[in-house]
Amino acid sequence: MTELKQFAENIIIKTKSLSLVTHLILKPMPKFSFLLLLLLFNLGNAQNTRNLWLQYDLVTDPVVLRTYKEQLNAVDIRSAALNKQVIQDELQTGILSMLGKHLSFTSSNAEVVIAKLKDLDANEKQQVSKTPKLESDGYIIKTIPKGSKDVILISGLSDNSLLYGTFHFLRLLQLHESLSDLDLVENPKLSIRILNHWDNLDRTVERGYAGFSIWDWHHLPGLIKKEYIEYARANASIGLNGTVLNNVNASAYILQDEYLDKVKALADVFRPYGIKVYLTARFSAPIEIGGLDTADPLSSEVQRWWKDKADEIYNLIPDFGGFLVKANSEGQPGPNNYGRSHVEGANMLADALAPHQGVVMWRAFVYSDEKPEDRAKQAYTEFIPFDGEFKDNVLLQVKNGPIDFQPREPFHPLFSGMQKTPLMMEFQITQEYLGGMSHLVFLPQLFEETLQSDTFIKGKNSTVSKVLVGDLSGQKVTGIAGVSNIGTARNWTGHPFAQANWFGFGRLAWNPDLSAKAIAEEWLKMTFSTDPDFVEPMSTLLLNSREAVVNYMTPLGLHHIMAEGHHQGPGPWVDGLAREDWTSVYYHKADSLGLGFDRTASGSDALSQYGTEIEKAYSKIETTPEKYLLWFHHVPWDYKLKNGHSLWYNLARHYQDGVLKVEDMISTWEQMQPYVDEYVFRQTQMLLNIQLKESKWWRDACLLYFQQFSNMEMPAFIPHAKHALDYYKSIQRPYAPGIKPSWD
Amino acid sequence: MTELKQFAENIIIKTKSLSLVTHLILKPMPKFSFLLLLLLFNLGNAQNTRNLWLQYDLVTDPVVLRTYKEQLNAVDIRSAALNKQVIQDELQTGILSMLGKHLSFTSSNAEVVIAKLKDLDANEKQQVSKTPKLESDGYIIKTIPKGSKDVILISGLSDNSLLYGTFHFLRLLQLHESLSDLDLVENPKLSIRILNHWDNLDRTVERGYAGFSIWDWHHLPGLIKKEYIEYARANASIGLNGTVLNNVNASAYILQDEYLDKVKALADVFRPYGIKVYLTARFSAPIEIGGLDTADPLSSEVQRWWKDKADEIYNLIPDFGGFLVKANSEGQPGPNNYGRSHVEGANMLADALAPHQGVVMWRAFVYSDEKPEDRAKQAYTEFIPFDGEFKDNVLLQVKNGPIDFQPREPFHPLFSGMQKTPLMMEFQITQEYLGGMSHLVFLPQLFEETLQSDTFIKGKNSTVSKVLVGDLSGQKVTGIAGVSNIGTARNWTGHPFAQANWFGFGRLAWNPDLSAKAIAEEWLKMTFSTDPDFVEPMSTLLLNSREAVVNYMTPLGLHHIMAEGHHQGPGPWVDGLAREDWTSVYYHKADSLGLGFDRTASGSDALSQYGTEIEKAYSKIETTPEKYLLWFHHVPWDYKLKNGHSLWYNLARHYQDGVLKVEDMISTWEQMQPYVDEYVFRQTQMLLNIQLKESKWWRDACLLYFQQFSNMEMPAFIPHAKHALDYYKSIQRPYAPGIKPSWD
């Protein structure tokens, strides 16, 4: 094996798919110097953005490289019937690409052993006997002595655990970490780690900004696209284990035989990567495709129809995950249509799935058509009475905040209130309210804020994360869902940095207590470069990016003041829609006195849903964290914030800070050209400039609008707006991505 | 310069965009043997399908390679201010990739001189003094003596002519042709060579099967995607010089200021590649975005609105091409809405564009809502009375046949009838009626059939091609349009072989008399391999593929018997739609007596529109070419065709032959694995299997349906259909690509 050959293979691998070409790259080659390899590699930073964070860049530090090469020659994969080939291909690809050498796969003299616990030999078993209890997907990576040398053991209970361990092992190399004296134990803290695709059968994607759906339903099951394999591999690499293929606003059509054959084809592709498929079930499917005249969950023919449908699905896909349901929300059908409750609806589906170990993920995103109650309160009001009544295989899927994926929301009060029901977190990875594809926003920062929020339900430090993983309630089924930001874009996500949000969601799904900072550093190193001159400033940039978007869109607890329909751009003036709680004025309540939604006892009293500790702290303006100020209070324009300046001044200050932060991001990025692919550099540069333009649009439109109410002068640090308010009001985006397409 | 460096660069170039990295690949490198280069290259056939036919594969024949390398060291690019960089990058990329060596760009001792005629020196001018007259885009490639050695001169009148000459020169190398004693003169036979994108502003594509629109309008003008450059380069390489960016069923919105800025951004990207942008103009735009209450072409305010709009566009885009218009057709607005004629409408727009040298391409695809006349006759009836009345800068854009892009149609009678009006050909590259993305159909075969059809208008051999290029009428403006099959698919067109149809259209647009066979061979060599063991069988496969689809869909002159709406799959039973001439039964007229549409004097008399020679020949069943039999005649089921068998027998025979041809294609393809990229191999294999399944679907559904009328036994060679007719009738495709998306 020569370096030159390795280099060539390295490049070839990056340009081709893994498994298809592995056999091609094993032919013998003449020998050349290693210098060459380095020289060639330094020609440019050619990230193939299709490969996401699995760039497997050549290790350029000669010491690290030599050490790794000495440590790794042969691997013994003993178990993993399901995905042995996937594990082997991934190791071969990764090691070849990072170290420029081929591994042997052999049972003798291997430095790495990959085997299920039950397949370890007596000595190995002895060495790991003190390992903490492993979950099904959990694994250990442990250096053990074997004869005269050290062996790295990757072990766990299931085939998938070995796959996860393998990806973790490769990640150590990507991060240039030491492979000596390893002693890692990893258990996923959540059992269902899943993407929700809001993908329609016609390939449009609701709130999708990365092009269109990667599911080419029309050509399935006959055409299996390379994308499907790449998708599964990427998810597996970060520990995701499920995917809901279709939109929560669902067509019943996907439950028809013809489509189930297509779903099965995808499930077959995904299985070796540990990814289960799930479907959104439209509650009225028994009528629409079943020919029944009701979908009443108490009707025995409806129950039988779902039971038969479940049997049919599991006959095709024995490891089918289950159903996601959006019922009686925003026009979707549900049990309420028949005078039945959410529990009756969810339990009926749960009964159909239970014999097959399937789950129902019932969305809590419900707000009534009729009740005039503060929308932030409604899901809590609706579901709390049912706490404890759901079947064991039902999870209630709750958005992170009580409104709808805003740049900042306090955590959803169901996380503290609903203590006898398994709750799943629903995050939105696609940036519906955070600038679509054009804005660089590192979402793990947002996710971390929610996950580390303290509910106080079992005293201090009762974080949402602990609720989710079941530490406080002991719930057995646990889960987390992320609304996908994946599409047909050549780099999967449109914005090159939106890949970080997919990655970050996956890492937090495995361990909700990971820090955003650690995730940022991992992602930057795996995707671009381990050079500290790149990682440090870029990590800072990522970690500041979420506060930037909050500032230039919805500072100080403002929320839901975006433009109507497409949700891109500011729209604080939005009023007079079919529902009051779809308007902006409903949420910001600007008037001559002040700004903000009084959710204390003197207002909607939504605050009371949070329990006494929080209620007590937040009931007064002066003890409410300023980041939630206008979420909970209607604050006078001249009210003095902690810095001694008025609300109006601070509002302007935050908007301006948001804009300035984007300018900082642009300056930082200009310095990063040496570390990134030329096109990624320019693409990001262009996108940051769009973001800057749009941050000013938000600032100018919102400040001009609110100034009408504050009647106060614009602070001097705010540049004169380019246009009058009417101009901003007149901006329309009828063809914005992610909304219902309109053919003329 | 060493081979190894060249090899590395070769691979790197293939994985990255051209111009962005050219500067990176010029660093010095140590020396290694050329053997290595070949060994490495033979590791696999790694076509990067993004590069289409510009693969620039390393020349593997050592003699050819050595000869080329000796012949090419330095190039002198003297002119081409507009696209000098593009020409230089393309040469550098192509030569580096094919020969593994760098060119110098210098004025001294160059073996290739690229210069406009006016920039040639006296000796060079003398050498080319006998060159036939060049058109603006035409060029010569000529070997001339210069001192003691030969020099290859690439010259023409315009910057773009040098670009076209350069691509031709590189193609010679791709085809492994000799570079000695070159004496080539190329003039494009048509002046407007244009793609029509049926792309909507929301990125859906009407009848688009390769994903969605590559125009990311929302992020323009801020985000310039690499795709735009690649698209322009691909088009330039085959001589296309224009693109209509938006659907013929147009939104007026694209003419608004905000969108014109986006259009300008694309025009700026395309300009160095010689591609002009055009827009579809919605006739009612003065109302929809202009605030007028009429779009009457005789209204002076309407005329002024269009004049102002044209001025505005040309102010942004000085070389804007002009407008395409679909008026008073399938619900689109037009002059008829105001009691005005097509001439009045077209000329009004022509007047607005004339000061800027813009053209109007007015579509002849018109069939009245009211007239009960045979639809095949209506465009002719509508437009013939206006012959000679259109302004000089109006072209009438006529589909190849009188119905609508069917697998086979006789040529459109306007090509013989409309002799005083410039006619443009409109071909459909996207396979609306030919299997969408799933079927391998080499369309240049279809295009050639139309182009070489004899109109007899100036005696024998008055081909449609001669009409188009103006040889028979002397028209000054000439053109050809192809409805694009390009989308967001990773390989641009979905089916890897659909790339050949884009390529073939471009080659025929340059020279409508090229043979389909020559085009097939060029494309196969440029895209995959020059190995005769690949090119010969695959060329046969391509050239047989169109007759296959005619046979399994619409043999013997049948037409328009596809499923409703999405046009995928058979639907001979389609009846009872809002318009009779949208149904299938209208076209096949099957009854107990026979099958086919009588278009002779005893029927609709559409035949009379073709002139006496054709009318005479086709008026009798026995002298009508069998391929058009049921287009012109209602033929008895038991009528004996030339082979002595009945119509019914022959119908079945053709359907079965179509299926068998697809089976042949599959067998041939199985042998091609050594020559093509592994994924392309598998992808094509999967698609061919879909095609086979669908060819059987067509055969079984159509024969079962027609058997109801023939009442004759199914010939023994037809396998028993898997399902009864009702099953085939029940098949629905509500989410098929290319149709209006439906959100549930």
UniProtKB/TrEMBL annotation, chains A, B:
Question: Which residue ranges does the record assign to the Alpha glucuronidase N-terminal domain?
Answer: 52-169
Spell out the InterPro entries in the cross-references: A-glucoronidase_C_sf, GH, Glyco_hydro_67_aGlcAse, Glyco_hydro_67_aGlcAse_N, Glyco_hydro_67_C, Glyco_hydro_67_cat, Hex-like_dom2
User: Which organism does this sequence originate in?
Assistant: Leeuwenhoekiella palythoae
- One GO CC annotation, please? extracellular region
Q: Where is the active site?
A: E330, D404, E432
Outline the subunit composition. Homodimer.
Record PANTHER family: ALPHA-GLUCURONIDASE A
Question: Which EC number applies?
Answer: 3.2.1.131
UniProt entry tagged with the keyword Ion transport: no
Molecular function terms in GO for this entry?
A: alpha-glucuronidase activity; xylan alpha-1,2-glucuronosidase activity
Query: Where do the Glycosyl hydrolase family 67 catalytic domain residues begin and end?
Result: 173-492
Sequence ranges assigned to domain Glycosyl hydrolase family 67 C-terminal in this UniProt record: 493-715
Protein name per UniProt: Xylan alpha-1,2-glucuronidase
Q: Can you cite a GO biological process for this protein?
A: xylan catabolic process
In the record, the note on similarity to other proteins reads: Belongs to the glycosyl hydrolase 67 family.
